[in-house]
Each structure stands twice: as structure tokens, then as C-alpha cells.
Amino acid sequence: ELKKKGLFNIPCLAESHPEVLLGRLREICLAVTSEVSNLRSMVSCSAIVTLGELFAILKKDMDSEVDEVAAVLLHVVWNSPEFIYKEACQSLGMMVENVTPARAMTALIDRGVK
Known about the structure:
It comes from Agelaius phoeniceus. The chain is mainly alpha-helical. It contains seven helices and no strands. The radius of gyration is 13 Å and the shape is globular. The model has no long low-confidence stretch (mean pLDDT about 95).
């Protein structure tokens, strides 16, 4: 429950004080992506949604994190129950809509092939 609350608060912080997150964006993204593989499906789903919301809020500021996040989300799409699959697809869509198109395409092709 605490992890879900923490994951919920990250996009709220990104909306109200993005400068706080931008300085430690790499660390935050690593922490959130590590929760995507959490055995508790609600925590995993919350982490996936959080990643999508970060793409929607921070937009091109998330360019530097596209490769790592795409790899994690593509793995989830490949090997997860349907409700998690849907959230991962939605987050990937938010990534594609909000980062630099060339970064998104490169990450999806490179990580998709692997």
C-alpha cells in the first residue's frame, strides 16, 4: 500500500514541482521501473501508470529515459496478464506521443528487436 501511494505521488510532484524531479530523474525512473516487476500486481500496475504519467507531464524531459523505460515496458507487454498488458501499451503510447519522435522510434526498434 505504501509503494502504491508513493508511486501515485510522483506524478503529482512532477506536475506541481517538476524542477524537483528533473535533477534526479534518472534515479526516480530507475526506482519506478524496478517496481514494474514487483510480484504484487497492483504495485506493478501502479508503476506502469506512473511511467506513462511522467511521459505525459515531463514530455521531452523524459527523452534521456526512453531507452530504459521502453525496454521494461516492452518486456511487460510480451509477458504479462491482460490488465497489465493494457496499462503497458497505454504507457508506451504516452511515451510515443510525448518524447522526441526519433528517440521513441529508435528505442522501440532497438529494444523490440532484443
